[in-house]
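FAQ: What does a multi-protein file look like?

Like this. Sequence, then tokens, then the next protein.
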Amino acid sequence: MTVGGTIAAAALGCVLASLPFLHFAHFGEHGAAHADHEPRHGGQLGMVGDYHVEVVRRRGQVQVFVSDAWRRPIESARAWAVFDDGPPQPLGWSNHRHVGRYVAGAQRIGVEILVSDGTHLATSFDFD
């Protein structure tokens, strides 16, 4: 084996030997509760107690995502949206989020969420 081949084999051996330790690697995910306050779905994010609520307006819909203090998704039982102080509109559950029809031109969206454990969340967001 040549010197270059020996060096390449040693480097590859080091890489392969380190693979089991990737299980303990930290790739920028926040480990502490309340440490991550970045919207994950392109909307606006707010806190209600120990819960994160993100509201997204997209393609004629309003979408509401709920997660816990560590940003793990929470399944909620029911949710409603209120557009510019109008009547509450129920939101349906679909693919880890609540979804409903967006009222075009609404500048304020209030959301009320009943979490599966019985906790009631209410917050509002201002949009331009």
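And here is the next protein:
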Amino acid sequence: MRIAIISGEYPPMEGGVGDFTRALSLELLRQGHELHILTGKQGAATVNVEEGLTIHRVIQHWGFNAYAQIARWIANVQPDVIDIQYQPAIYEMKGAIHLLPRWQQHHGRPFSTTFHDLRVPYLFPKAGRLRAWAVWQLARYSQGVILTNDEDYATLVQQLHPSDADSRLRVIPIGSNIAPKPPAGYESASWRAQQKFAPEDFLIGFFGFLNHSKGVETLLDALAQMLEAGIPAQLLLIGGRTGSSDPTNRAYAADIDARITAANLEHRVHRTGFTTPEEVSAALLACDVCALPYRDGVSLRRGTLQVALAHGQAIITTTPQTPSGHFRDGENMLMVPPDDPVELAAALQKLWRTPELRAALGQQARQLAEEFGWERIAKHTAEFFEQLRHTPTTP
């Protein structure tokens, strides 16, 4: 198949959706498909072949003025299927992307949308119900919809006729965009020593951008409680600070900085900054545990979770909003209530006291990660695209 993917971000832009798009496209390419990716430009418009993928960096802004460019791109590429990678921040929180499948529905090429979440766009002040309406329009007029988790599937099914949902919706979890491959010659004890961590330090890793949904303030409160209890805890913030797409993250990151200073945690909180995948892998492998206290609960849509699983980390996270057979408290992760620093601190202390539990959780995490390999993800995605290609529908 000739597959066209629209994504508001793509490397070297910092962002999980861009990383996902690249990883999925490379595996689809390996499986024999032709890939064209339309994304935003950071400077002059360019069309380049990178790693065998044709990357069209041509969109300046994602408003309605982009429709003509997108139409020309589709006409030039002549794809068998078009997939929109959707997360509102990567399209500048604007509404035009939501109506694209409806605008293109009579042009004979099936649209699919991969929803990384169902968060609504900003649109304009006092948009109110129009914000949710825009998301439902995108789902309604896409011939196919891919959800990354059961929670979003359950939400979207309520907006569609059940028989329609059965034929048009698929749940395909995302995978890890960071392979457990540290630099050559890596050894965790040496890496920790180079970073000035003592052998007895209990190193807590947090991976991902800083935003309100990540619960970093809860983690800081839990860290303070551990220090008060005399535990030699250190917190390592791994990866970029805020990403390229969502400007609201900067205000949250500034608030986190202020909290660190107010709590006198400057010497206990460390940062890698945005770095190479190999260095991210090295940092994760050096940690004793990985804490991911999502405010909305753990979910398969979280790329940061997938990375921690792939690295065989002992993970402490938060109870999911929708029960999932993938997550087993005490077996492949520890789960605590969201926004509860006392419970989070207690779980961290439990893992500090019981290294054998950390090892068991890490082993089970690695086994769970095997269910979300890119070969399987790309295979299921291509099968869904093939179905859309041969049975196009008009909602």
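Q: Is there any per-entry metadata?
A: Some entries carry free-text notes. For the entry above: The chain has two domains: 2-175+374-390, 188-372.
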